[in-house]
Amino acid sequence: MTTPIYRYVIEDRTHLLPFNEAASQLTIGLKPLTLHHEDVFTALFPQGMMLGRPIETREDFAAIREPAIVYRDNLWFDEEFLAYFLEQARRLNRACRAAFPADDRAFRTYTVPLTTHLDKGRDADDNPIYLIDLWYLPQGYDPNPVPVVVPGDAKEKGFYSVPDFMTMEQGDLTHYLPARGVISVESWVHVYYASIIFGAFTRASRFDERVANHNLFSLKLLWRAVLEMKQVLASSAAVKIGRGTVIHPTAVITGPTEIGDNCTIGPGVMIDNCTIGNNVTLDDGCVLMMSTVADGCFLAFRAALFFTAVMENTIIAQNTCLQMCVVGRRSFVGAGSTFTDFNLIEQKPIKALNGRGELEPVGQIVLGSGVGHNVRIGSGVVVYPGRMIESDVVIVASPERRVIMRNVTYDQSDHHQFMRDHRRFYPRDPRREAVAAEDWE
Q1: pTM of this structure
Q2: Is 202 a domain residue?
Q3: Domain at 57, CATH number
Q4: What is the b/e burial string over 109-126, where b = at least 16 CB atoms within 10 angstroms of the residue's CB?
Q5: Domain that holds residue 294
């Protein structure tokens, strides 16, 4: 009889701005992070696991006596990362803690910035590593776990060239896409990285690798394309469509793309490498590239998403453009609004709030904005890169507030002036301030 293994979760109740919600409850891709964990563990443990009592700190799991896996619930990791870690840890058959190389390009670029839940260490060859909050305990608690270093093995992939006159960093605009991904979600930027860079973009990279290295899969793609009289990346082998979804004949969809059940895709829509949930409507002429759209969203005609994650039941009005953004659930973005992703004047480094609530450069040439839950944004608003709009905020476009150059908190919401009965669904955690001093200079 197989010895049961327990799963213990360190609960991190810290609210992430601008959402005012714990990371475990935030939608990453199409599902809340806590459900993503369930999917990953179910895939690796189809026989099931015993769920231990929730714990609050690392010290609390000193009482664990049975075989267990312990992790912090704000930690996003993909199936490939967890599988590699568990394989190496089981081979050692002793208490282990997951780590990654400090010089890994993907982890150095996306996992380390804005993060507080990382411990520095050294591997067996004295190379610098970062230790994360993920443990394997085959005989219960052990105060001296061995680090198991999980390599990212990232591939550098570019998507356009940046002209010299536009940026202080010349060359191609590239991302590093890991074979195994992990990130501690402590900022809205981490939600973007996990959903888009480690999610949609990395999925496309793995798809390309599979096409290049597996002849049978390549033949399957080609055969489907011939039978369906479509381009290879538009065939059903690359584009997965759910039941009850209606797609207009003039829509152009290329994979790898997944579209859920009961969606409506209108005339002239263009979709490239996206993940779309259930009951989503994309009206005439919408353009989506490398983005995720969760259940129940509506995009009006000619709305555009580029490297953007949209959570459930949100409306993006017509002629609106969002680039490299995260938008919370049940929000509304008015017609003709633009979320910029590049500091046009003086090309200053783009900043965002880190896990301590301090502004910190993110190390990206381009980055959009973070919009909380239950936000209402009027028509024609322009938002500067890296800014946040807190949950439950209402912005009425006016000459004084047409261009958003600073974070907008609930206390600065226009509803205090125009509509007193606007209900607040996501109050701020009283233990932390809304923002730090806003040194955008």
Answers
A1: 0.93
A2: no
A3: 3.90.550
A4: bbbbbbbebbeeeeeeee
A5: 238-418
